[in-house]
Amino acid sequence: MKNLQPLIYVLLLSVLCLAEARIRHYRWEVKYEFKSPDCYRKLVITINGRSPGPTIRAQQGDTVIVDLKNSLLTENVAIHWHGIRQIGSPWADGTEGVSQCPILPGDTFRYMFVVDRVKNTKSVILLTTSLFSEFVDFYASMFLFEFVIINAGTYLYHAHYGMQREAGLYGSIRVALPTGEAEPFSYDYDRSIILNDWYHKSTYEQAAGLSSIPFVWVGDPQSLLIQGRGRFNCSTPGIATGFCNATNPECSPYVFTVVPGKTYRLRIGSLTALAALSFEIEGHNMTVVEADGHYVEPFVVNNLFIYSGETYSVLITANQDPSRNYWTVTKMVSRNNTTPNGLAIFNYYPNHPTKSPPTVPPSGPFWNDIEARVNQSLAIKSHPNYIHPVPQTSDRVIILLNTQNRINGSVKWSINNVSFTLPHTPYLVSLKENLLHTFEQAPPPDVINGYDNYDINAVAPNVNATSSNSLYRLKFNTTVDIILQNANTLNVNNSETHPWHLHGHDFWVVGYGRGKFNVSEDPKRYNLVNPIMKNTVPVHPYGWTALRFIADNPGVWAFHCHIESHFFMGMGAVFEEGIDKVANLPSSIMGCGDSKRFVKP
Ligand code: C2O
Ligand code: CU
Fold first, then answer.
1. Which of 152, 344, 524, 550 could form a disulfide bond with 226, CB atoms 3.0-4.6 angstroms apart?
2. Is ligand 1 within 6 A of the CB of residue 269?
3. What is the mean pLDDT of residues 119-139?
4. What are the E-state strand segments in 254-395?
5. Of the listed ranges 8-17, 105-114, 516-525, the one predicted with least confidence
6. In the prediction, which pLDDT does 15 show?
7. What are phi and psi for residue 435, nearest 5 degrees?
8. 382, 399, 429: which is the final residue of a domain?
9. How far is CA 498 from the centre of its chain?
């Protein structure tokens, strides 16, 4: 009889959720395959043979189940659902070291989540929690992920283990409104693309370089991919024969076919390892309508700047000369670089999809035009009819100074002089089960010692820092301000752009500024009227970005620079809130470090 229980829960769940709720069941197999996304053949991590992986399409209220089989043979895996807040299911966040142990080769992990409306959240959480533990008991070795999506919008998923994401393990999540609810804009068709940068060296070679002495930087990406397709110049000297084939269909450009006169919603996500990007469609304006799952007050751009971890929806009307095709261009900005622009074809039906546009592709903005990028950041405001009122005051202010440092001869990134390292036992298990010896207990500082005198415009006189896996503990339900303060790197006259991503929350972006944040003056200029909510936000060179969020999601949440190599070099932090309110953890997330003792036989 016990064996029927999970089934009964599933039935109950689907009946009680929502009348229109459906179950979306995905079966994914993750493995290495040879692929040539930019014509150059290398090992790529695929999902069901594809990279980018399948798009998850759901409607608010749907239950999504992903059965993930790890067929990497000798490599662990974990997948993070980027932008999904995991309310009531912090164990399903997919973040190795924070929310779970990695999934071992040969194991199958069941990811399951409910795409729901806010008003039904509570009942669903209770039900799915019991459902979860039942399944875990029942399927012993099966890895079950289960979570609730609150907002319609555009999200992403990607590996969250080591630097695995840039091996190709990523895709999009598209959540539609419930039937009968309308968006505050209209369009004829809906499309999703992911922008990415692409390296020919393996993630292992890159990771080894980053942690070796002397330090070996990953360098510029070899190409930029638009929906998994790019073009490396196969006649580049030094390419071994047989590795690069310019006529391989895998690297034929992505084609975006449009019918003249129609309007398209294009959902654009960036999951670059390093590059900040500009994206444009020759001769066509784009109206920005969504950012990270929130409606924005529409504004028109020629080119869109997009940072790793961000998503946008833009509207494009096919209103140009329909007798020809146009270029779609993505360009690496913010760092001086050698990476060629990525190209795709904006194809007017019925022209042949591969017919080359008669023009030279637009060359895009200058890489160092910081002002244009800051201006776009400032232009993103909440849509007037969808404002989530921001708390007018905060309970705690944490100023995070981003610096590049040296620790024992290695180059690292630090936050308040602490370079972040992940613990071996996931925090979620350690904190919930009181295994407090598994990570350093002294919390990192809310503001660095000597912040007032720190010169962000110069190389620090003392570039030493320490490594630590300590975390910030937030009081449940309090309002927290985070000031991300950028600074000069180890090189004179150099400061970089860092896209910071917060797990488990959307935050209000209350301000951006140049130079050093002034604790008494700058908060007076915060936008507390119509700030956009996002989950990823850039910190511009020599500038600061101020965020506000409510620590109301019980769990342990990573907050980090979304540049893969920067997080690897320590550019991150972790927040805990309301750990006592987290329901019993499924043993499927355990099995590594000290969490081994909780795995039931
Ligand atoms: Cu999209 Cu922690 O990452
Ligand atoms: Cu960074």
1. 344
2. no
3. 36
4. 255-258, 263-270, 276-281, 286-291, 294-301, 303-306, 311-317, 326-333, 342-348
5. 8-17
6. 42
7. -95, 60
8. 382
9. 13
Q: Give the distance (Å) from ligand 1 centre to CA of residue 558.
A: 8
Does residue 599 belong to any structural domain of this protein? no
Q: 370: CA distance to ligand 2 center in Å?
A: 16
Range of the domain at 145: 4-181
333 and 454, same structural domain?
no
Last residue of a domain, one of 382, 399, 421: 382
Note whether 145 and 233 are same-domain residues.
Answer: no
Decide: 418 in ligand 1 pocket, CB within 6 A: no
- The response to whether residue 110 sits with its C-beta less than 6 Å from ligand 1 reads no
CB of 194 sitting under 6 A from ligand 1: no
Residue 62 has pLDDT above 90, yes or no: no
Domain identity same for 378 and 392:
no
Provide the pLDDT for residue 434.
Answer: 95
**How many angstroms separate the CA atoms of 102 and 589, rounded?**
8
Residue 83 Cβ inside 6 Å of ligand 1? The answer reads no
- Domain check: are 29 and 99 in the same one? yes
Looking from the CA of residue 503, the nearest atom of ligand 1 is: 2
Check pLDDT > 70 for residue 482: yes
In this predicted model, which residue has the larger pLDDT, 128 or 529?
A: 529
pLDDT value at 134 more than 90: no
Cα 289–290–292 angle (5° rounding)?
A: 165
Total domains present in the chain: 3
- 137-168 pLDDT tens trace: 333 334 566 666 668 999 999 999 999 999 99
Residue 67: its pLDDT value, please? 83
In the reported structure, the alpha carbon of residue 179 is separated from the centroid of ligand 1 by a whole-number distance in angstroms of 30
Cβ–ligand 1 contact at 231 (below 6 Å): no
Q: Report how far ligand 1's centroid is from the alpha carbon of 476 (Å).
A: 23
Find the CATH number of the domain harbouring 50.
2.60.40.420
Is residue 498 within 8 A of residue 563, CB to CB? The reply is: yes
What are the residues whose beta carbons fall under 8 Å from the beta carbon of 254, sequence distance 6 or more? 193, 226, 227, 228, 229, 328, 344, 345
Tell whether 74 and 208 lie within a shared domain. no
**Same-domain pairing of 417 and 378:** no
Whether residue 206 sits in one domain with residue 72: no
Establish whether residue 309 lines the binding site of ligand 1, counting it when its CB lies within 6 angstroms of any ligand atom. Answer: yes
For residues 370 and 392, membership in a common domain is answered with: no
Domain presence at residue 598: no
Where does residue 358 rank: exposed (0-12), middle (13-18), buried (19+ CB within 10 A)?
A: exposed
